[in-house]
Write a structure and sequence with these properties.
By secondary structure, this protein is mostly beta strands. It has one domain. It is built from two helices and 16 strands. The longest helix has 10 residues.
């Protein structure tokens, strides 16, 4: 029988498995922590894991989150029971939990990064129509795909000029579970997103240069209270 630990959180109790949640082969972690579930701003940290455990790299940087804060997403972690709030399509919340990272997209030539990079084209769309067979996938308009809603990947406001795909609600995507989650550039330090994690270019560019696909990088994104509760049992980096 798998052991569980009883944890209380602002009046809501849930069960959390007593086990590491970050894959053993993952040695890079991007950690984003917000003050609470409804906070639209947070702090980003970078960590590497070696023989002595997790070690912080560089200084923490500010980020903005969803306009409604955070909600439990679907990724590498085990969802608590009950999982509340739970990420849903169109809720304006960024996903909380642990997620692997995919490739990078952007405008123009490849930036300094070891991640797989694809230059976004005017016809590229990320499908957020939950009824589509291509829900939560980036596809070109040239493919005859039925959908009623899809996000433009080459935006006129340049927010997607640099982005990293967050592998949330994938393989397979659960309908209405949330789609098209990225780390991308922010409009301003006070402008939240509709569900992504955004940052200044002075944060994004070093992040892209640092991320190494061979290190199996992950995004760990949680409210601070929850992070502190699970830090030891989930074997997460210790925040300064």
């Amino acid at each position: 029988m798998r052991m569980v630990r009883w944890l209380g959180w602002i009046g809501l109790a849930f069960l959390v498995p007593v086990s590491a949640q970050v894959p053993r082969e993952s040695t890079q972690a991007v950690v984003v922590v917000a003050k609470d579930w409804d906070q639209t701003q947070g702090q980003l940290y970078r960590f590497v894991r070696g023989e002595q455990g997790w070690v912080q790299m560089g200084e923490q940087r500010p980020v903005v989150l969803g306009q409604s804060g955070l909600a439990w997403g679907r990724g590498l972690h085990t969802l608590p029971k009950p999982a509340s709030p739970l990420k849903k399509e169109g809720d304006g919340r960024a996903p909380a939990g642990i997620f692997s990272l995919g490739g990078a997209y952007g405008y123009g030539t490849k930036p300094l990064t070891a991640l797989t990079y694809r230059e976004s084209q005017p016809e590229d769309r990320c499908v957020d129509d939950s009824n589509s067979d291509f829900y939560n996938q980036i596809v070109p308009l040239t493919i005859p795909i039925p959908w009623t809603s899809a996000e433009v990947m080459r935006r006129e406001d340049d927010l997607y000029r640099r982005l990293v795909v967050v592998n949330h609600n994938v393989a397979p995507a659960i309908p209405q579970g949330g789609s098209c989650i990225f780390m991308h550039l922010w409009r301003s330090p006070s402008s939240p997103t509709v569900g992504c994690t955004a940052m200044a270019s002075t944060t994004m560019d070093p992040l892209l240069a640092w991320l190494d696909p061979e290190s199996k990088p992950v995004l760990i994104q949680l409210p601070q209270t929850v992070y502190e509760q699970v830090q030891s049992t989930w074997n997460l980096p210790k925040l300064p």
